[in-house]
Design a protein that fits this description.
- Helix content is 28%, strand content 22%.
- With 252 residues, the chain is α/β, with parallel strands linked by helices.
- The protein has a single domain, classed as Spore Coat Polysaccharide Biosynthesis Protein SpsA, Chain A, CATH 3.90.550.
- Strands 1, 4, 5, 6, 7, 8, 9, 10 and 11 form a 9-stranded mixed sheet that branches. The chain has a two-stranded antiparallel sheet with strand order 2-3.
- Strand 8 and strand 9 form a beta hairpin.
- The protein is globular and about 60 Å long.
- 37% of the residues are buried.
- The mean pLDDT is 90.
């Protein structure tokens, strides 16, 4: 099985315009993401998928990049178009996979990418993603932190911005001490055979309620397999997030 890593990178961002080109130390954010992803031992190649000439020209100086449309509503859609542009020689088959790597995770751990690929090594699996145990009660209640519950086979049952599971019998401050809560880490792996199907699905009611695209997939019967990770990098959503980066993380 071959696996390609695709990094969606758009210039327009409500909270941080031009985010991929923001400098983190002596390198742009998109370059740091690209270089970290390239350390994966299981990816066949890494490609940036952008909709902006400035990002395209910058990435072309050090790596592979394709220009995609402005109309995409999600990274999944952009990955699908990028794959079509890259795969004109049909070197990737329906049994291969795509890893959708977040363009605002400059310190992504390459072992997490390999973890997703190992999940998809089982040919029966369609989509893979990661979760991490939550460590504070505040995160459990935070609607910006997406929670997930899953079954004993590691298949996601539901994602929510609300607290799940909700313990009806114990709603006091000790709830966090008695239940495990998991945060969704937003990196996805897709079997190529189903990627086209995912982007052609109509929006579902659950997705519209929670504003989470993965609920569209669950609502239409697709399975999402999860794996637990203990690592969570620093995600850059706003310019203020750059201040959270410790100097030691920037390297020489």
């Amino acid at each position: 099985m071959q696996c390609i890593g695709i990094i969606p990178a758009r210039f327009a961002s409500t909270r941080f315009p031009g985010k991929p080109l923001a400098l983190i130390g002596n390198k742009t954010m998109i370059r740091r993401v690209y270089e970290q992803a390239s350390l994966s031992s299981l990816l066949s190649e890494v490609v940036v998928a952008t909709d902006d000439d400035r990002i395209y020209k910058h990435v072309a100086e050090f790596g592979k990049v394709v220009m995609t449309g402005l109309h995409h509503q999600s990274g999944t859609e952009r990955c699908n178009e990028a794959l079509a542009l890259i795969n004109h020689d049909r070197r990737y088959t329906h049994d291969d996979c795509v890893i959708n790597i977040q363009g605002d995770e400059p310190f992504i751990n390459p072992f997490q990418i390999d973890n997703l690929i190992n999940i998809l090594a089982n040919s029966d699996r369609q989509i893979a993603t990661l979760v991490k145990k939550l460590e504070s009660p505040e995160d459990v209640e935070n609607p910006h932190v997406v929670k997930v519950v899953f079954d004993h086979a590691g298949k996601a049952l539901y994602f929510s911005r609300a607290r799940i599971p909700f313990c009806r019998e114990d709603q006091n401050s000790h709830t966090f001490d008695h239940w495990l809560y998991y945060k969704h880490i937003g990196i996805y792996g897709y079997r190529i055979s189903i990627l086209d199907k995912l982007v052609s699905l109509p929006a579902g009611k659950l997705e519209q309620a929670e504003s989470l695209e993965q609920l569209r997939w669950l609502e239409h019967g697709f399975q999402i397999h999860i794996s637990e990770t203990t690592y969570e990098g620093i995600s850059i959503d706003t310019p203020d997030d750059l201040k959270k980066i410790p100097p030691i993380a920037l390297g020489p």
